[in-house]
Design goal:
Layout (H helix, E strand, L loop, with lengths): L15 H11 L5 E2 L6 E12 L2 E12 L3 E5 L6 H7 L10 E9 L2 E2 L5 H7 E4 L10 H11 L6 H14 L3 H4 L12 H13 L5 E5 L7 H14 L4 E5 L3 H7 L2 E6 L2 E7 H6 L4 H8 L4
Parallel strand pairs: 1-11, 4-9, 4-10, 7-8, 8-9
Antiparallel strand pairs: 2-3, 2-5, 5-6, 10-11
Helix pairs in contact: 4-5, 4-7, 5-7, 7-8
Bound molecules: adenosine-5'-triphosphate (ATP).
Adenosine-5'-triphosphate binds next to α2.
Length: 287
Amino acid sequence: MMNSTGQQQFYAQVSPEQTALKAQSLETHQTIGELTSDNPGMTTRRIDVFYNDVQAIYDVSLDLGEKEVLALIGPSGCGKSTFLRCLNRMNDTVAHCKISGEISLHGTKISEIEAEELRSRVGMVFQKPNPFPKSIYENIAYGPKIHGLAENKADLDEIVEAALRKAGLWDEVSSRLDVPATGLSGGQQQRLCIARAISISPEVILMDEPCSALDPIATSVIEDLMSELKENYTICMVTHSMQQAKRISDRTAYFHLGKLIEVNPTRQLFEQPVHQLTQGYLRGSFG
Ligand SMILES: Nc1ncnc2c1ncn2[C@@H]1O[C@H](COP(=O)(O)OP(=O)(O)OP(=O)(O)O)[C@@H](O)[C@H]1O
């Protein structure tokens, strides 16, 4: 492991004003900790993000280790979701958002991967469960169908069942696959959305506060599920719950005002935070 900055390569051009802002902001900033992984699933180098002329992310370089859970924590508005959304180019859909730097998925720059393919390889689960207004079966079958993963109905049935089993939902829904998914409980809907993400065999799963709309019991079911999923998937999760980050992540990254302040193995970050901003946040002084 080592600190890394990497060479800057732009895939969306920022304006001279934005570059000047960036130059000012970088004078004093250096991330503490282990930015890189020996076995990265994704690498990000020198990421800057602007919404119009307001910079939301400053020069972030960070790897997602293969089959690790990386938690992104920090006060509201520090840029966690913005950074997460860079990883599958969700920010491309925001016209006034400009990103520079380089992001790679298993060695391929994501700027060279077609957006739809990228989003099938880097799946996403959102804060609020968002099932399609269709049956439970169709929610899962949709992705595999459009990506041509099933040759026939039997194949598709198998994919749907496997995804629901992996998401720990099969036993609860196997007898009613044709009912509307919107009739499931919030926790079940979130597991359905995880099953939907898994059904197209992504390499990475992004989760943006996946439990924030759930009660403690549903949260604990999703946390158990995430711990199981990391056997097979690389997961990057935004969370406001420090307990959740402690329980399930391998590494934790602390953001503050758009900068990656400190990143280290979770236990180390929580027990021996180095930067005073990390210490203050973990003590609950702000956030
Ligand atoms: N679509 C947008 N247009 C303009 N500014 C935005 C947009 N999305 C986010 N921002 C700004 O970028 C900054 C980072 O926001 P972001 O949502 O990434 O933070 P966050 O750490 O995920 O916050 P929270 O924990 O409250 O969800 C904030 O100042 C926010 O107001």
